[in-house]
Design goal:
The chain has a two-stranded antiparallel sheet. About 3% of the residues have low confidence. Helices cover 70% and strands 3% of the residues. The longest helix has 32 residues. It has twelve helices and two strands, in the order ααααααββαααααα.
């Protein structure tokens, strides 16, 4: 019994030593690299701070300008709305792509190929000019006179075209992300659901989607950040989002660089704010993260039984 207690104590001490952080000896090259990086950083910051052409007073003046803040709010709205609608549509496309019915899977595959294979800027311009192809849209009951006509040119305004274009493009990427999450679910889990007699919808809702979420959520966080920056493309449609708001100001004042710095700073600030929860989600749901506690709980052994408590 005493030998068992000794062996258990040695095992616990070995576990404690395994949980301790490893010390890495710093090389001379690492110290030199730090010095070089600090000197380069100081030089860049000094140049930026002392160069009068940056016009930091103008940057401070327009950083919280009313039109800039309105553009920022519109950018946030387009990001949230496009991601929400794109995720829902992407989920439907992923389910269609995973379907065993070949025509349904083929339709989803063609959609994803088209919208991922063409630039989002081209898609935005296309939807903004869709009235050239369909001046009027008729909604009604087929083979009857019941229906109404809609003026496409009046319906597809700049904001609507931006929302439609961003949503449809994002849906294609989210479909592939969700499909990749579905593929991460073990085949045994699906076979177990089949053996329990679950229907396809129940199997998707109870088994596949919950287990696919650890793979889907981190990638979706990256897509949110990319969407926020990608909304700058809608400025070509005349949508007064963040970049367009800055462009409208420097078109009057001819202070191009300071206004571009204002827009860049807002993009940087919002990206950093979005990156923090995204990194937390990655840490929580990543399959590759090593979940080792920082501090091991002290274990006390009682004699003579040697029971840990």
């Amino acid at each position: 019994m005493k030998q068992a207690i000794i062996e258990r104590s040695e095992a616990m001490s070995g576990l404690d030593s395994a949980l301790k952080p490893r010390l890495k000896r710093r090389s001379t090259f690492e110290y030199v690299s730090w010095v070089v990086c600090i000197l380069v950083g100081i030089g860049v910051l000094t140049s930026v701070a002392t160069n009068p052409n940056f016009k930091w007073d103008v940057v401070a003046k327009y950083f919280t300008h009313e039109s800039i803040l309105r553009g920022l709010m519109l950018t946030i709205f387009l990001t949230i709305a496009s991601m929400a609608l794109g995720t829902l549509l992407g989920l439907g496309l992923a389910i269609m792509r995973a379907s065993t019915i070949k025509p349904i899977a083929a339709i989803a595959g063609v959609y994803i190929t088209i919208f991922r294979g063409t630039p989002v800027l081209v898609q935005l311009i296309f939807w903004f000019n869709i009235s050239a192809l369909y001046p009027n849209l008729s909604i009604g009951i087929p083979f009857t006179d019941i229906g109404t006509a809609i003026d496409t040119n009046a319906l597809m305004g700049p904001i609507t075209a931006a929302l439609v274009g961003l949503t449809l493009n994002e849906a294609a990427y989210m479909a592939e992300i969700i499909r990749g999450g579905f593929s991460s679910v073990g085949k045994g889990q699906i076979e177990a659901a089949d053996s329990l007699g679950m229907s396809g919808a129940m199997k998707m809702r109870k088994v596949i989607i919950p287990q696919a979420m650890p793979s889907i959520i981190p990638a979706t966080g990256n897509q949110v950040i990319g969407m926020f920056k990608g909304t700058s493309l809608v400025s070509v449609l005349g949508v007064a989002e963040l970049l367009q708001s800055a462009q409208l100001i420097y078109a009057r004042t001819y202070e191009t660089i300071p206004l571009l710095i204002v827009a860049s700073l807002w993009y940087l600030v919002m990206t950093m704010l979005l990156s923090y929860p995204q990194s937390k989600l990655e840490q929580k749901y990543s399959h590759t993260s090593v979940r080792v506690p920082r501090k091991a709980r002290k274990v006390t052994l009682t004699a003579p039984e040697g029971i840990a408590r």
